[in-house]
Amino acid sequence: MSSHHVIREGQEPAIYLRNSSSVILKVLHNLLEWSPYLIVNSDTLVFCKDHGIKPDAIVCETENEVDFFIEIIPHLDTLNDLDQIKKWLKSRNCDQLLIFEDMNNLKQLISTDPLFGVIDRNIKYSMIRERILKWFPEGQKLFLVNTESKQNMEFTNLKKNNQALIVINTGLVNIHSNNPFYLGELLE
User: Fold this and answer.
1) Taking Cα atoms as reference points, which of 134, 138, 140 lies closest to residue 185?
2) Which residue has the higher pLDDT, 159 or 76?
3) Whole-model pTM above 0.90?
4) 41 CB neighbour count, 10 Å cutoff
5) C-alpha angle with apex 9: 26 to 131, nearest 5 degrees?
6) pLDDT per residue as tens digits for the range 177-187
7) Would you say which domain of life the source belongs to (predicted)?
8) Residue 30 CB contacts under 8 Å (≥ 6 apart), including other chains
9) 145: left (phi over 0), alpha (psi -120 to 50) or beta
10) In what order do the strands lie in the sheet with 131-136?
11) What pLDDT band is residue 29 in, cutting at 50, 70 and 90?
């Protein structure tokens, strides 16, 4: 990006460190350059302190051990942590959230909500409603996560390789499904 790139409010996603074992520091630091908010929970607050990272807000049940300068996202018994954060972000005109967490732990919670993206170590997952047509280089690894147990997936220019799909030839990849799905791409 050039030095005159202007970021509009709500344009870049907030980051929620839900599970510190899903964090690669280099990936996190690169994202923090653009992210408007870093949100933590009681467990990941310790991780941030250990690595000299200052969060903006915390979602927690108690105010114990919370730094005076960190905003507390109110705990409501009727909402899970993601719903609490979603409500808090909407009040700040931020409509995207990248969650550092194991994708398998989130599949049911995030379902098909386009607000949420997931970073699981070095893979970034984005929700795709039905179809994606995107250019990829030959050999690029992609990961698909279904949102339904019986989901039909069709794709071109990809071959299966264990848990991943590999781009056959540099160019457009077309993935289509009868239901929303998550597409995972390796971060560098």
Assistant:
1) 140
2) 159
3) no
4) 20
5) 70
6) 999 999 999 98
7) Bacteria
8) none
9) beta
10) 131-136, 171-177, 153-156
11) very high
Task: Kindly indicate the confidence band of residue 66, based on its pLDDT and cuts at 50, 70 and 90.
Answer: low
How is residue 30 written in tokens? 């690169």
**Residue 181: what are its φ and ψ, rounded to 5°?**
-150, 170
Strand 14-17 and strand 38-41: the pairing is parallel
Residue 86 phi, psi (nearest 5): -60, -45
Spatial separation of the C-alpha atoms in residues 57 and 15, rounded to whole Å: 10
Question: Which pairs count as long-range contacts for 107-112, CB under 8 Å and 24+ apart, including other chains?
Answer: 107/145, 107/147, 109/80, 109/82, 110/82, 111/147, 112/147, 112/179, 112/180
pLDDT at residue 3 is higher than 50: no
Quote the pLDDT of residue 56: 93
Cβ neighbours, 10 Å, residue 58: 21
What's at 175, amino acid-wise?
Answer: I
Higher confidence at residue 10 or residue 80? 80
- How far is residue 103 from each of residues 110, 120, 124, 128, measured CA to CA in Å? 10, 6, 10, 15
Assigned token pair, 170: 């540099």
Residue 47: phi, psi to the nearest 5? -55, -45
pLDDT in tens, 133-188: 999 999 999 999 888 888 899 999 999 998 899 999 999 999 999 999 999 999 87
52 backbone dihedrals φ, ψ, rounded to 5°: 65, 30
Which amino acid is located at 69 in the chain?
A: F
